[in-house]
Design goal:
Layout: H1 15-24, H2 35-41, E1 44-49, E2 57-60, E3 68-72, H3 78-93, E4 104-107, H4 122-138, H5 141-151, H6 156-166, H7 170-180, E5 185-191, E6 194-200, H8 221-224, E7 236-239, E8 252-259, E9 264-271
Parallel strand pairs: 1-3
Antiparallel strand pairs: 2-3, 2-4, 5-6, 5-9, 7-8, 8-9
Helix pairs in contact: 1-4, 3-4, 6-7
Length: 292
Amino acid sequence: MIKIDRIELADIANPVMLAKALIDQIPDIEPPIPVQQIALAVDIKEIKPLTVKGFEGGLIVPDDKSEGFILVNDKNSPRRQRFTIGHELGHFLNPWHNPGSSGQFLCTSRDMIVSQFKANESRQRMEVEANQFSAELLMPQRFIQADIEKLNDAEIDHITKLADKYDVSKESMGRRYIECQDEPCALIFSRNGNVSYTVKSQYFPRLEVWRNGDIIPHDTRTRDFNDQPGSTSGWQEHASDAWLCDNNKYESVYEQALIQENGYRITLLTLGDKVDEEEEELRESWTPRFRR
């Protein structure tokens, strides 16, 4: 039985530090993280199905947040529900997160992936921090980085394996994988040939396609690879301007694609060599080479 001392967590407002402090109270914990048991151990009384359309999850609390009820869209996959529970726990345990007079948080699918906020957007900030908490709780950085070191070079199949190990969706693990990966890389989430959203590591160049609705480039694995859902393409090398803005400093970009159900795809991009300044003028005549 898991026991958590909430007093030890009471003054921690940083979402990542809050999740780490919680995990530190559970000796010998291993993935997959038992998020439902943790929720019950910190005074969540019940995890209930959410009946309000258009929302992924919710939290109902009294003014003092002495206890709470988590609401989850039960039509989502169990793995997606796990991230939602972690997200709502982030609202519950963070002393700065205030639901206002309604006494509840109601969170949309967009709230579950938002990663940036403006200084004056307090609600958006709470959603970002709830996501940061859930990611650190379900996929602790020290665990993920150790796994990535063992797996070596970036591969989409690594995301699939880690998603299974941590019992989270490929989408959630993909975002976490990019955060913890030393190699500069990016993920593009798309459906039916159009970008849904993208995530990239800090030093990855600006993408040419990144907005919701942008069209996936022609002659790419993401657009042309056809197989059964769950299949991963081989690597394809492109001139960098196929995926990156023209002012980037790289000769090429490598692309790998994962087919999912209902037209969804995940694209992993990594970088080739940097352009030699003396040869930059010859870039137009560059011929792609295949990675593997």
